[in-house]
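in:
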């Protein structure tokens, strides 16, 4: 929502305001809808993309756009998808002994690497 906010000089300035939607009726008055789809929404438990869920989201977004809404889709699924990519890469390049280890490095660096590896796949959908 864009609203005019008086500045110190008294001249109105345009400012972005965040409006909390309290009910479905309020949603009808919105121009822009932001949808966040996290890792658990865009991926299956095994880490692969859930094309069934994603296609449902895309259909709903398409309908909203046809109704005149501006829609922004935000996804945090890159980490989950990237984790699958890195596991596969480690499997293909590692030896048998390495594959028997079950613990993954849960450091911030590992999550960043997963996000980087998964981002391209997520954007290519």
């Amino acid at each position: 929502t864009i609203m005019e906010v008086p500045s110190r000089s008294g001249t109105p300035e345009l400012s972005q305001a965040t409006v909390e939607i309290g009910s479905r009726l309020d949603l009808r008055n919105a121009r822009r809808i932001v949808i966040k789809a996290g890792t658990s929404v865009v991926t299956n438990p095994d880490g692969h993309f859930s094309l069934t869920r994603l296609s449902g989201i895309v259909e709903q977004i398409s309908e909203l756009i046809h109704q005149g809404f501006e829609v922004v889709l935000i996804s945090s699924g890159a980490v989950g998808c990237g984790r699958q990519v890195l596991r596969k890469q480690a499997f293909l390049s590692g030896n048998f002994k390495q594959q028997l280890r079950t613990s993954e490095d849960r450091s911030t660096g590992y999550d960043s690497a997963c996000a980087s590896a998964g981002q391209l796949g997520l954007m290519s959908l």
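note: DSSP finds six helices and four strands in the chain.
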